Amino acid sequence: MTKQIVFIIALLATLGIFTYTVLRLISFFRLTKPYPVRDFGKRLRVMLKVAFGQTKIFRFPVIGFLHALVFWGFCVILIGSIEMVIDGIAGTERALGSLGLVYDIIMASGDVFALIIFVAILIFLFRRIFLHVKRFGGIEMKHSTHIDANIALTLILLLMVTLLGMNTAYVAGNLQGEIAGVYPVSNILAGLLKNFNSPAVHLIHEVNWWGHILLIFFFANYLPYSKHFHVFMSVPNVFLSRLEPLGKLPNMDSITAEVKSMLNPDTAFAEPSGDTQPIGRFGVKDVEDITWKNYFDSLACTQCGRCTSVCPANITGKMLSPRKIIMDVRARMNEKGPGLVKNGKDYSDNKSLLKDYITAEELWACTTCNACAQECPININHPTLIVEMRRYLVMEEAAAPGELNAIFTNIENNGAPWQFSPEDRLNWVE
Amino acid sequence: MSASGKLQVPVMADLHAQGKKPEYLFWVGCAGAFDDRYKKVTRAFAKILNYLKIDYAVLGKEESCTGDPARRAGNEMLFQMQALNNISVLDGYGVKKIITICPHCYNILKNEYPDLGGNYEVINYTQILQENIQNGNLKLNSDLFNKSKITYHDPCYLGRANGIYDRPRDILHAIPSEKVEMKRNRSFALCCGAGGGQMFKEAEKGNKEVFIERIEDAIETGADIVATACPFCMTMMTDGIKYKNKEEQMKNLDLAELVAMSLNL
Lengths: 430, 265
Hints:
The complex is a heterodimer.
Chain A: H1 2-29, H2 40-52, H3 61-90, H4 101-130, H5 143-173, H6 184-189, H7 198-222, H8 230-239, H9 253-263, H10 265-268, H11 292-300, H12 306-310, H13 312-315, H14 322-343, H15 353-357, H16 360-364, H17 371-375, H18 382-397, H19 402-414
Helix pairs in contact in A: 1-3, 1-7, 2-8, 3-4, 4-5, 5-7, 8-11, 11-14
Chain B: H1 12-17, E1 24-27, H2 30-34, H3 36-51, E2 56-57, H4 68-72, H5 76-92, E3 97-100, H6 103-112, E4 121-124, H7 125-134, E5 149-152, H8 166-174, E6 178-179, H9 210-220, E7 225-228, H10 231-243, E8 251-254, H11 255-262
């Protein structure tokens, strides 16, 4: 009974902190612009393919395969964690054991995956600490981001150790009795405990059981403040991803209304009627101009750097790093979000996402080639956000590079980016 | 028809005056009309259209920039003015099907004009070429490229932007010659460096030009022809070949030119 009470207190504390975090994030989401979500059937298919099928992570085949194993393992082990919560509240042991064959399969694969994940995480940690992987570097990768990554990996490693410890002690403690589930790896490990007496085995089981569940509780509340939030966010992020072809940029409907009235001879020279809605800022300057999906992307991003590693601008030494753009969104919301929530939408801290975080030089280096969006394992779309910030620079500040201003003039005057007369458009037939 | 000299190219306004309505509009694009090197590609493709007796016309003086470089450089206002004007010209002629050679024109007409009320069936020239090779209308059994090794550079706006990877390769496979892939190909292909308005400006500070990084991929294959399917890619690859002093060893040709040459057009 004491165990149940302690468990429920720990659970409530976990849920309490988690609720606080979620409410805080929701208050930030409220600051952002709409992003319509339709076509649920199609979204489901994309989610099954890209998230659960891990199709894009396999574009880096070796390390991608290891990640896929970790992901699939997590999915299976999650069921066991749910069972632990039931056991903790109800004071039962292996409450789902009555599921029979299904339980055997889930437990057996969870047990095997625990070992696989353990090995994979060791490899990940080794790569991060001892190998020089280029995409883990870059101006946006601070010392604290590396520490964050290693903490998250270490937590996962400990989760697997305690899971295997718990299973091993469970098997060793019930050798004569009934064992719920099948444990291929722990069966072998149980041999290590054969010289331990029954109370000792029980103690090992309890320590690992509590260790595992408390680590989960801690992990759940650490993640939202970590780059590893992608554990929660990446599957929904894929579900919410853009369904249009990568080449399509979103239309600015506010501009369409204005251009249409300019092109219509009846309205072009009319006085403004006065009752027109004030048009908000063109493009993106700061976090209140982004869509809620842009913010979602920034929370889901795990900073793997696949985007940056394929960016032609970054490869050739330019300042642009698509990963940095996404990370900056999250960092800027952390900075400005609380002030906006507290003081309303007119709050200013005399800083902005564009300029203080992301420079014009970075934005103008993009070729909109979509290699970053193609590569992102969770379907983040960087180029649309980059173009949104260019829209702000051009339409609000007329701050395009000189050569681009020249092509704007040419297009306006002669209908081509070069200074040729439309009269000469058929000269190619000569 | 000779290699130089005036091509017979029907113009929409003329056909309209005669009460005729062609099946296709051939959207030439600004580079197709004005870029000296790329004009040859436009001519090659027009010759193929004539050879296939496809019922088409061009807008000629009435064509105007789609607005793509303006939109991607952030000038949404200018883009939408161009788009709405173009849509009114296209709709005025009752255009239903558009053929483009430039992938940037293709992408914007196909994916972005519908948001502004311009709904057309937009066809990239690789589709015309590939389908007519497949159905036997274009027989490319000339031995002109027998000894050539061809590598294909995927334009971003055909490949990643619109998923067109196989058609260009099918076209090349119909030309008797050796084919070789660059290490970064299809959805992994490296940009030539000219998209998103870069064509018209100096690159930002870095340690290398993107087109040099890309031409190195092409040179590494040992190919003597780098095939392109985009006017900007053509400028970049041709510049890359010059930069590397490889003009003797490597040529840059568009898919339409390779097909037209194979047909001896």
